[in-house]
């Protein structure tokens, strides 16, 4: 029988590179760094209290994720948000998430379904309190229950990246036109999806999810006149 450990393992602290990357990324997702805004390495380095090297590495990672783009005349800037891009993202989500529900709907236990229902209640509460990041976080918990159950890491990674872009677009929409979005997010679609799963109606759950995602881009405005770099 193995001996009981007397000391807890020391958690490896995040590297400076990872910390810089995560902080800049979150600022982009929350639209603190607005769509179209130039990224000035010296300013970012000064604000984060690091050298320019981790800033460059963070920007390179964010460029790969499509959140930052190169500007030949100005270095790098936060990518803009467009309705056509969001439409393509939701089309891909519709295909993937419809497949995931069809493959996993009958595998959930009652306890897991109860947890998903709790997440929906938490999302409802967050929306009432106008806590939009909390709303989007709990919304993610519901959607990602299906890819976690399916267990394909490649699909999960794709959906995580798509989610980042959706999160940013919705946050920008909240900033731009709060009143319209709060009343029209369509989050109650999730309750109908969950109800269909509980009743064993898999195809209804699939069609409801696909319809929910098909309408997603209508909640996104490209707000082209409000994005940095436009006049």
Give an account of the 3D structure.
By secondary structure, the protein is mostly helical. It has 2 domains: 16-78, Winged helix-like DNA-binding domain superfamily/Winged helix DNA-binding domain (Arc Repressor Mutant, subunit A, Orthogonal Bundle); 83-226, GntR ligand-binding domain-like (Four Helix Bundle (Hemerythrin (Met), subunit A), Up-down Bundle). It has helices at residues 16-29, 41-48, 52-64, 83-104, 110-128, 132-150, 153-182, 189-198, 202-214, and strands spanning 38-39, 68-71, 75-78. The chain has a 3-stranded antiparallel β-sheet with strand order 1-3-2. Helix 2 (41-48) crosses helix 3 (52-64) and helix 5 runs antiparallel to helix 6 (132-150). The longest helix is centred in the C-terminal third of the chain and has 30 residues, at 153-182. The protein is globular. It starts with 15 loop residues before the first helix and ends in a 17-residue tail after the last helix. The mean pLDDT is 87.
Report the CATH topology name of the largest domain: Four Helix Bundle (Hemerythrin (Met), subunit A)
Main pleated sheet: 3 strands, antiparallel
Cα end-to-end separation: 71 Å
Shape: globular
Classified by CATH, the class of the largest domain is Mainly Alpha
- The whole-number mean of residue pLDDT values reads 87
Would you report the number of β strands? 3
Strands in their spatial order, largest beta sheet:
1-3-2
The helicity comes to 55-70%
Low-confidence stretches: none
Q: What count of helical segments does DSSP give?
A: 9
Question: How many distinct domains?
Answer: 2
CATH superfamily of the largest domain: GntR ligand-binding domain-like
Looking at the overall shape, the CATH architecture of the largest domain is: Up-down Bundle
């Amino acid at each position: 029988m193995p001996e009981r450990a007397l000391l807890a393992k020391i958690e490896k602290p995040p590297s400076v590179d990872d910390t810089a990357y995560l902080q800049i990324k979150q600022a982009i997702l929350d639209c603190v760094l607005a769509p179209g805004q130039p990224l000035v390495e010296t300013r970012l380095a000064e604000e984060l209290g690091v050298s320019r090297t981790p800033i460059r590495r963070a920007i390179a990672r964010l460029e790969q994720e499509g959140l930052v783009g190169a500007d030949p005349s100005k270095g790098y800037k936060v990518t803009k948000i467009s309705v056509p891009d969001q439409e393509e993202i939701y089309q891909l989500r519709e295909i993937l998430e419809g497949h995931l529900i069809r493959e996993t709907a009958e595998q959930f236990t009652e306890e897991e379904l109860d947890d998903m229902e709790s997440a929906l209640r938490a999302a409802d509460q967050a929306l009432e309190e106008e806590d939009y990041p909390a709303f989007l976080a709990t919304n993610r918990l519901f959607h990602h229950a299906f890819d976690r159950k399916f267990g394909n890491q490649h699909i999960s990674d794709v959906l995580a990246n798509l989610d980042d872009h959706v999160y940013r677009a919705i946050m920008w929409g909240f900033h731009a036109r709060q009143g319209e979005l709060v009343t029209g997010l369509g989050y109650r679609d999730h309750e109908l999806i969950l109800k269909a799963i509980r009743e064993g109606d898999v195809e209804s759950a699939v069609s409801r999810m696909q319809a929910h995602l098909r309408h997603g881009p209508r909640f996104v405005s490209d707000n082209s006149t409000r994005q940095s770099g436009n006049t």
